[in-house]
């Protein structure tokens, strides 16, 4: 967890200036966290996902089943950007969600990252919104069946 939190702090708190009290939440204790490290063990990127009751609680009205993984907090440190690490982390979430028998991945993407997720097969839906950070987002979804 320290490596995951270090990357998230670097990307969200320092670079994007999201207040620390908005970045850390009680859902970290219920999430599946993935961490990518370099050859020296240094943390390079992270992502988390929720499923089941925690996902339904946090995303009430959006996630109403136990078959959806909610991908969030995808962060890649500056030194690893452009290497494909972000895509690899998304694919790792999809693989783990599929292993758990989940059928969809839902996420709320910062609008500047829509193209990244679209290239990975995600489809945006609904209007743009501010999820509290002041950064515009859009909801996106992808079915896992048949992958």
Helix/sheet category:
alpha+beta
Task: Give the CATH superfamily.
Answer: Gcn5-related N-acetyltransferase (GNAT)
> Radius of gyration, rounded?
14 Å
The strands making up the biggest β-sheet line up spatially as 1-2-3-4-6-5
Q: Span between N and C termini?
A: 29 Å
> Which fold name corresponds to the CATH topology?
Aminopeptidase
**Range of strand content:** 25-35%
What CATH architecture do you see?
3-Layer(aba) Sandwich
- Major β-sheet, in short? 6 strands, mixed
Number of strand elements: 6
Helix tally? 5
Portion in helices: 25-40%
Question: Are there runs of 5+ residues with pLDDT below 50, and where?
Answer: none
Tell me the series of helices and strands, N- to C-terminal: HHEEHEHEHEE
Overall pLDDT, averaged? 93
Shape: globular
Number of domains: 1
CATH class: Alpha Beta
Summarize the structure.
This is GNAT family N-acetyltransferase. The chain is of the alpha+beta class.
Describe the structure.
By secondary structure, this protein is an alpha+beta fold. It has a single domain, classed as Aminopeptidase (3-Layer(aba) Sandwich), CATH 3.40.630. The protein is 31% helix and 31% strand. It has a 6-stranded mixed β-sheet. The chain is globular, with a radius of gyration of 14 Å. The relative contact order is 0.15. The mean pLDDT is 93.
Question: Can you give keywords for this protein?
Answer:
5 helices; 147 residues; alpha+beta; Aminopeptidase; 31% strand; 6 strands; single chain; six-stranded mixed β-sheet; 31% helix
SSE diagram, text form:
Blueprint: H1 2-15, H2 20-23, E1 32-37, E2 43-50, H3 53-58, E3 68-76, H4 85-99, E4 104-110, H5 114-119, E5 123-130, E6 136-143
Parallel strand pairs: 3-4
Antiparallel strand pairs: 1-2, 2-3, 4-6, 5-6
